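Quick start: what a row looks like.
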Amino acid sequence: MLSLRLTRATESADLDRDRIAATPCIEIDCDPGLLTRAAQVLLAVAPVAADRCRVRIVARGAYRPGQFVVLCETLEGVGLLTEDVTYGADRSEVRLRKADELGLVETEAQFDHAGRRFRLASPSARDALRRFPVHLKTFYEEPLLRAMAAIDRPGLYVDGGAHVGNHGLYMARLAGRAVVAFEPHPANRACLQHNLALNGVADRVAVRPVALGAAPGRLRCAEYRDANPGAARFTEAADGAGEAEVVRLDDVAELRDRPVAILKLDVEGMEAAALSGATGLLARWRPAVFCEVLDATAGNAVAAVLARAGYRPHRRHHEALVQEFRSAGA
């Protein structure tokens, strides 16, 4: 291991690049106020160090989580991705390693919430949403999750577009609900099942490997990006040869037999189609509905389907990207 001590006296010292090139592990211990300089050191040596190295930065002094987010996003540009961040009042630590050495297990982040320990992995080390469990030590869309958990009525939580289980895990473990999760992308679904097992709720979350739509069919994955695997986008497969099966929520047997309290849809622009295939479920159980609406066109389409089902807008969440709807008689 190569240890570098950054102080005000040494921050401008020349770097021995040949020595760094021969070292698989680098540790930088920096005095208060020198976190940015630590990043500059790593950027300077990246061409010779990033191929195989692991990095540990000990930052003395008080730092905000946002400062580490900026640091780590900068270092992602040279192939060093964050494994974990530990915050302290006067000493914090970040561990990074070469990006393509991070597998599913290595992307796991641990954090405490409501007195419980949670572990979340990502299908990609470059997933932008990793900043929440890794840096911010919380769930993605945590205020939205609290609003969902506050709904006081019995029934299932239906998770359309479950991704890696951020929402379903919260609802199963903290809200105590049984969950039915739909995730058509195989990489996301494998990570979802991994996370459910990690957190001991696999028996409370039924995972369905299908997409949701207005009619049965097949979809083809048109876009999947490591930087945002949750935004995997599917398009219709006219030849019927798409890799993802499409089902209507109304055709899912367990949703006809068991009350549904909450329906959440985050299916990358297919929310209105999924709701069109759920008119029976909406009429039967009158669940609270949470839909991602990325733009006005999508929002109008969702609102029109739900209006015909007797629903009206109730509240916006998460910087207006998620719209909550309630039955008009609720």
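That is the whole record. The domain at 142-327 is CATH 3.40.50.150 (Rossmann fold). The radius of gyration is 23 Å.
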